[in-house]
């Protein structure tokens, strides 16, 4: 437990915990100095800045630099895909004896499907995933205001980056099953 706190003239603050004295330095400035490219400079140098993002693995941050408002980042798509890889799907399979239905759940995006056979359930699931991804991204302005839905955004973004049905099935962790 901290007993006493004392401000020192050199910008450090001493904390006393028991008989130990601890010093901490508090910084008023930002920890990392990130350059924000103004909108005018972005328009003038867009080709060069995109090339830096793609070839130089740089994050280009742009916004109204004078106002200090919100910003946007430009990063290479392959870098974004690498970042999104941590959002993994863990399908849950079950069989309901009462209804004689095969069930598959993707709790990460709240998509659930069932069918008379596992193959049928998989086809229904893939169709629902595609439909839900389109729906989410078309209405993201609404969904991003809802905390529970906002958490699903990177999962839907990862799905949206799939270029084929085969890739989508792999991302969903269903590639060991037949569809």
Walk me through this protein's architecture.
The chain has about 180 residues and is of the alpha+beta class. Among the domains are: about 35-75, no CATH class; about 90-170, Double Stranded RNA Binding Domain (2-Layer Sandwich). It is built from eight helices and nine strands. Strand 1 and strand 2 form a beta hairpin.
CATH class of the domain at 92-171: Alpha Beta
Which residues sit in consecutive blocks of at least 5 with pLDDT less than 50?
none
Question: Quick check: average pLDDT?
Answer: 87
CATH topology (fold) name of the domain at 92-171: Double Stranded RNA Binding Domain
Structural class: alpha+beta
Major sheet attributes: 3 strands, antiparallel
Number of helices in the DSSP assignment: 8
Structure characteristics:
179 residues, alpha+beta, Double Stranded RNA Binding Domain, 3-stranded antiparallel sheet, 8 helices, 38% helix, 25% strand
Helices and strands in order, then pairings?
Elements: E1 2-7, E2 12-17, E3 20-25, E4 36-38, H1 39-44, H2 46-55, E5 60-63, E6 71-74, H3 77-84, E7 92-96, E8 101-106, E9 111-115, H4 118-138, H5 140-143, H6 147-150, H7 153-160, H8 165-171
Helix pairs in contact: 4-7
Brief synopsis:
With 179 residues, the protein is of the alpha+beta class. The chain is built from eight helices and nine strands.
């Amino acid at each position: 437990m901290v007993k006493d706190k004392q401000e020192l003239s050199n910008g450090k603050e001493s904390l006393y915990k028991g008989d130990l004295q601890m010093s901490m330095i508090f910084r008023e400035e930002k920890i990392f100095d990130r350059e924000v490219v103004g909108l005018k400079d972005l328009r003038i140098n867009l080709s060069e800045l995109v090339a830096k993002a793609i070839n130089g693995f740089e994050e280009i941050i742009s916004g109204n630099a004078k106002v200090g408002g919100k910003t946007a980042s430009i990063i290479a798509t392959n870098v974004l895909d690498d970042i999104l890889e941590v959002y993994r799907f863990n399908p849950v399979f079950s069989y309901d004896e009462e209804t004689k239905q095969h069930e598959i759940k993707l709790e990460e995006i709240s998509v659930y499907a069932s069918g008379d056979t596992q193959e049928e359930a998989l086809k229904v699931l893939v169709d629902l995933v595609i439909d839900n991804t389109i729906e989410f991204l078309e209405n993201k302005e609404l969904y991003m205001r809802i905390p529970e839905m906002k958490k699903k955004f990177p999962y839907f973004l990862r799905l949206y980056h799939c270029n084929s049905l085969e890739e989508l099935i792999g991302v969903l962790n269903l590639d060991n099953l037949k569809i």
